[in-house]
C-alpha cells in the first residue's frame, strides 16, 4: 500500500466503527504560545481530555500533521529521524471505550486491514497490566508473544497517567543481536509502530517511579498517590512514515513512497549526490512546505526562525551536492506526493514557492561568500575554529554561528563558542565607542524634550539629520542615519538601560530606529535606516517607540531595583550596584563580592524579589534636590555624577533609588522573575543574570516542555527523571564498555582482505561511529600490512593512511580527491565522502592496478 492508502485505510477502519474522523489541525497550535508546533496527535485534543470543552463525538480518529524541531540535527544521519510527520490515532477523551475495545480494534486493523503476518508481530505491556494481557490473549495473540516492559507506563507527573501497550514488527533474526530469545526493546530487530495509551489513574501524590507491579499500583491507590479515573480514556499514536516503511517492505522511512519521489528528483539532478544531503533536502523542504502552508514565513525568531533554518540548511546541502534544479521544484514534488490528503498545499503552491525562493535568494549571497571564507578558516584551523574567526564569519560575511557550527560538526571540528561571545561583546563596545568619539567632535547638536515617561508616541519635527557623521538636509531609502527631533519618547541608552527602538515617520518617508543614544545632555540621537521614501529636516514627524519591547525593558529595569534591595537584605548593606545591563530579554547586575553566592542565598534573593512582586508595590517617582533625596535614604551610586535635582524612583516604601530609567507602574507588572546564574567577572566582582516577565514565562514554558518531553520519552514523571537518567547512564556506560571490547576485537584485523597491485592496499567499510575509531581501524590494518595503503570508510567519513615508506610516491592528500573533501599530513588524511564509498574504492583500485 502507498502512504496515502495506509492513511485512508486507517481512517476508514475507525470511521466504520463509529469514530468521527477529524481533519488535521494546523501545525501552529491555536491559542498556545508556549509551543512552537504541534508535535503529537493528541495535542490538539487536549481541551477535550481536560474537560475544558466537549468533543464533537465520543469516538475520534485523525491523521495529525506534526513537527518536531528537536530532531533537525539528526535528520539524514539515522534511518528514522525526520522533522515533519503524520501521527495516526484514535481517541476517546470522555471514556467511550477502554482497553476491551481499543486492543481488538487495533489488532483487527493490523492483521486484517494491513494484513500483517501474525508471526512477525509482538506486543508489549506494563508489568502490572494483567487486564491488557488477558485482552490481548482473548483477541488472538499468543501469550508467549506478549512481553512485559517497565517502560510501558505513560505519565507526566501529577495528573492523568496509566499503562500503555505497544505493537512491534519483527524485522527478522538477521537484524540485531541474532539471538533466538530476542524480545522487543532489546535491539534493532524489533520496531515499535503503534502505542496504545491507557490513562486510567490520576496521580495526586508522589511516586518513587512508574509502578512496576500490580502490588505497587494497589499501594499507590491505598495511599492516595493514584486515584482511579471515573472515565478512563484512550489515546493511541502510529507514525504514518514508520508504518509505511514496514508495510512497503523497506528498511527505513526515506525509502517509502512518501519520500522516494523527492529523493529521486534530488538524486537525478545532482552532480555528486550523497545520502546525507539527499535526505536533509527532502525532509527539510517537505517540512518547510507544510509550515508555510499553515501561515508561517521565515523570520529571525520563533516559528519563523525554525522555518528559516530548515530552508537554509536545505540550501547548503543543495549546493554541496551540486543540485541543478531550484529547491522550489522539490516543493512542487511535495505538493504532488501529498495532494490526495492535503489539497490545500497544492492550492497555496504559488505562495509557498515564493516564500522558499525569496528566502534562498536572501541567503545565497551570504552562503557563497561565507562558505569560501569558511574553507579558508578551516584550512588554517583544522581542529578548532577560534572564536574571533567564527565572529568574523558572522560579522563580515553574515554567517550565523549556528551555520558555522553545523558545517564544523560535519568535519569533526570544534567551534570556540565562548570566544565568539567575547568577540561579539568587544565589537559592540567598539561600535559604541566609535559613535561617541565621532560625537565628541560635533558641536551644537539639537536638544530634545524627552516625553517617554508619560507616552510612547509623540508628534514632533525633525530638527537635524546626520549621515556618515556629517549633517545632511535629507536622506532616502536605504540610508543609515542619525535623526534628531524636537520632542521624543525614545529613551536613550544610559544608567545600564539600553536604548529604545521604533519608528519615526513623516508624510514622505519612514525611519526604522534601531538604537537610541545620548551624545550629550538632553541630546537624543535616533540611529536607524530609512526604509521607505525620503525624510527631510523640518518635516513634521511622528515618533513611536516599540511598545512591547519597551514594556519588557521596563519590567527588567524595575526588577533590578527589587533585586538590589533583596541582595542587600541577604548579603549586607556593603553590597551596592557596580554596574548593570538592562534589555528586553534579560538583565545583568554586578555587585562587589569576593566569593560565590551559595545556592541558598540565591534562592532567598529570588524568593524575596517574588514576594515583593506579589505584594504589588505601587511605583512612585519624584523630582527632588539631590541633597534631600540622599538625606531621606534613597540609594545612589557614589561613582555616578548627579545634578542638583534628581529623579527618585520608589516601589512602595520598600526600595527607593536615584534613577532616570523607565519602569512599570506596579511591582506586580514585573511578573515572573528568575535568577539564571551568578558568576565571577573579575577580582571581587560577581554578576547576576536574571530574566523576568515574558522572557521568564517563555523560559519556564520552554524548560517545562523540554522536561515534559524528556519525561515522556523515558516514560516517567518529571521528578523521577534524575534517577531514571542515572540508571540509563549506568546502562550506557556498561554498553559502551562492551562495545569498546567488541570494537577492539573487530579492529584486531582478523580476516583482513589485502588487495595486491603496484602496492598492497586495503579498501574496507567498517562499523565506526567517529573519525577516531576510523583512524584506529586504519592503524591496526596498517600494522598488519607493514607496508601499503589503507582506506576505510564509515557513513560519510573516510580515512586514508599510507605507510611512511610510500608517502613520497603516494601522498594521502592526492589520494583524497578520489574520495571527497578533507586534509592532513602526507601519511594520514581524514575527510567527508562526496561519492559513494564503493565508487571511491574502485577509483583507487584503478590507480593501483
Features:
849 residues, eleven-stranded mixed beta sheet, single chain, alpha+beta, 38% helix
Report on this model:
This protein has 849 residues and is of the alpha+beta class. Helices cover 38% and strands 24% of the residues. The strands form seven sheets. Strands 1, 2, 3, 4, 5, 6, 7, 8, 9, 10 and 11 form an eleven-stranded mixed sheet that branches. Strands 15-18-22-21-20-23 form a six-stranded antiparallel barrel. The chain has a six-stranded mixed sheet with strand order 31-32-33-34-36-35. Strand 33 and strand 34 form a beta hairpin. Helix 3 packs parallel to helix 4 (130-139), helix 9 (302-320) crosses helix 12 (349-380) and helix 10 packs across helix 12. It is globular, with a radius of gyration of 32 Å. The mean pLDDT is 87.
Outline the secondary-structure elements.
Layout: H1 3-15, E1 20-22, H2 46-49, E2 60-67, E3 84-92, H3 99-113, E4 121-125, H4 130-139, E5 146-148, E6 153-155, E7 159-170, E8 190-197, E9 201-203, H5 214-222, E10 226-228, E11 234-239, H6 240-247, H7 260-268, H8 275-293, H9 302-320, H10 327-337, H11 343-347, H12 349-380, E12 384-385, H13 387-397, H14 401-410, E13 414-415, H15 417-440, E14 449-450, E15 457-467, E16 470-472, E17 474-476, E18 480-485, E19 487-488, E20 502-505, E21 509-517, E22 525-536, E23 540-545, H16 547-571, E24 579-582, E25 587-592, H17 599-614, E26 619-625, H18 626-631, E27 645-651, E28 655-658, E29 673-682, E30 685-692, H19 693-714, H20 721-747, E31 755-756, E32 760-765, H21 771-785, E33 789-794, E34 797-802, H22 812-815, E35 820-823, E36 828-833, H23 837-847
Parallel strand pairs: 1-2, 4-5, 12-13, 14-19, 32-33
Antiparallel strand pairs: 2-3, 3-11, 4-7, 6-7, 7-8, 7-9, 8-11, 9-10, 15-16, 15-18, 15-23, 17-22, 18-22, 20-21, 20-23, 21-22, 24-25, 25-30, 26-27, 27-28, 29-30, 31-32, 33-34, 34-36, 35-36
Helix pairs in contact: 3-4, 7-8, 7-10, 8-9, 8-10, 8-12, 9-12, 10-12, 13-15, 16-17
